[in-house]
Write a structure and sequence with these properties.
The chain is an alpha/beta fold and 427 residues long. It contains 16 helices and 18 strands. The strands form 3 sheets. Strands 1, 2, 3, 4, 5, 15, 16, 17 and 18 form a 9-stranded mixed β-sheet that branches. A 5-stranded parallel β-sheet has the order 10-11-12-13-14. The chain has a 4-stranded parallel β-sheet with strand order 6-7-8-9. β17 and β18 form a beta hairpin. α4 (152-169) runs parallel beside α5 (190-203) and α12 crosses α15 (379-386). It is globular and about 65 Å long. Bound molecules: zinc ion. Zinc ion is lined by residues 64, 66, 210, 245, 297-298.
């Protein structure tokens, strides 16, 4: 399919085009962006999208989630992380069937498309069902089979399951990529972690892991490993490409050490606030040149997948806790939600900005009737502070139009109904 997006206000997020450009056209052939300019015309295009009065920007990248946890939305109020997992989540997860995982994943992918996220990084289990849902909705997904184990034999079994998943699926579908998802240092012992890292090296894949989400976790790691979390990283994970989710409880010395790793942070402020974990010191991480991207975490703790909301929290929290209004200008926040996310997932050559040769993962925002976008002064700030996922009217992933003028390709009601039934059954 050849698509021509006409007359856009373009925010490309590319190094070459940092300014907002008006009256821009974007030409797409198959899954690729092939032209960006004014007055592009091509009589062979099969579809024209009129972007008059609309903002065209790269689809957002969510670097930490648990895709099927959509069904646990609003089950968390009043629980701290460990309590919530032990008393609520893990007992419910034990009851989940493959079909449940499939429907819960459909709900998440639908939510992505409807709120402008085009790529998501997932950590869960029964991953074949998550892949089935991703192929149905056609989103871009990076996933794994989460590794946790109480002993070496149990961990080996999980690694074999992940190996099987990789053998069957890696490289087969270009929207789908993989990493090595390890739940956390506090849920596996050192020997198990060593097995995971050895496997990641063998497969040459990055590791995605929860890291220093709250004080309790840091204490548990100290007890289990007889040293600090950052030292465990130094001892066991050096040279490995890492995606660290959360990083709430880090000191400035820890951050200085982190700089030496091939590391990206997935900052999940809403989940961190809701679980009473705290606020990650990301302004310091950015100052040290560490790549910081944005995540929502599962909807159980993160409420929803609306990365526009996450962008606003990210900016406000750092300005507030550091008592420094100059921190994190709106454009930096937009980078965190797009190109920094792509870098975290090793996909920066393919997505994260609108550039010729990149994949057509593009969203259109309509702010023309939004009272909170009037008057329009600074568009970057308007998007960060006053846009919402529901302002996204059209979503393209891999050159396919998955939502146009708020209408998706999918039967939404049966997905909603099924998910309501699941949570009723397992609660
Ligand atoms: Zn998480």
């Amino acid at each position: 399919m050849k698509i021509l997006i006409k007359n856009a206000t373009l925010i490309s997020m590319s190094e070459k085009r940092k300014k907002i450009e008006e009256n821009m056209d974007i030409k797409i052939e198959g899954n690729q962006i092939v032209g960006i300019g004014q007055n592009l015309n091509d009589s062979t295009v099969t579809k024209i999208i009129d972007a008059t009065n609309k903002v065209v920007m790269p689809g957002l990248v969510n670097t930490h989630s648990h895709v099927p946890m959509s069904i646990f939305r609003e089950t968390v109020d009043g629980y701290a992380l460990q309590d919530w997992l032990n008393k609520k989540i893990w007992p419910m997860e034990d009851k989940l069937t493959k079909e449940d995982i499939y429907y819960a994943s459909l709900l998440t992918f639908l939510e992505m498309v409807k709120t402008g996220t085009t790529t998501i990084n997932d950590m869960y289990f029964m991953t074949e069902e998550i892949l089935r849902a991703a192929n149905n909705i056609k989103v871009r997904l990076q996933t794994s089979r989460t590794l946790t184990g109480q002993n070496s034999a149990e961990m080996q079994q999980r690694i074999e399951e992940l190996n099987c998943l990789l053998e069957n699926n890696m490289g087969k579908q270009q929207r789908i990529t993989f990493n090595i998802g390890i739940h956390g240092l506090y849920t596996s012992n050192r020997e198990c972690i060593q097995q995971c890292v050895a496997f990641a090296k063998e497969k040459n894949l990055p590791i995605h892991i929860h890291f220093c989400e709250n004080k309790q976790e840091v204490e548990d790691i100290k007890t289990l490993y007889h040293t600090s979390p950052i030292e465990v990283l130094e001892q066991e994970f050096s040279f490995q490409k890492l995606i660290l989710a959360h990083c709430v409880c880090l000191t400035n010395e820890d951050i200085a050490k982190l700089k030496n790793f091939k590391v990206s942070i997935s900052h999940c402020p809403i989940s961190n606030l809701k679980l009473g974990c705290g606020i990650a010191p990301i302004a310091e991480m950015l100052a040290q040149g560490i790549n910081v991207s944005l995540g929502t975490d599962g909807q159980g703790s993160g409420c929803n997948l609306d990365l526009f909301e996450t962008m606003k929290y990210t900016a406000l929290l750092q300005k507030g806790i550091q008592q420094n209004a100059k921190l994190l200008p709106a454009y930096e926040i937009l980078k965190m939600a797009t190109i920094n996310g792509a870098k975290a997932l090793s996909l920066e050559k393919e997505i994260g900005s609108i550039e010729e040769g990149k994949k057509a993962d593009i969203i259109l925002l309509d702010l023309s009737n939004s009272v909170v976008a009037k008057p329009l002064n600074d568009l970057f700030s308007t998007i960060v502070y006053n846009a919402k996922g529901t302002n996204v009217v059209t979503t393209l992933i891999d050159g396919e139009i998955l939502m146009e003028n708020r209408k998706t390709l999918y039967e939404e009601a049966p997905i909603f109904e099924q998910c309501q039934k699941i949570i009723k059954r397992i609660q």
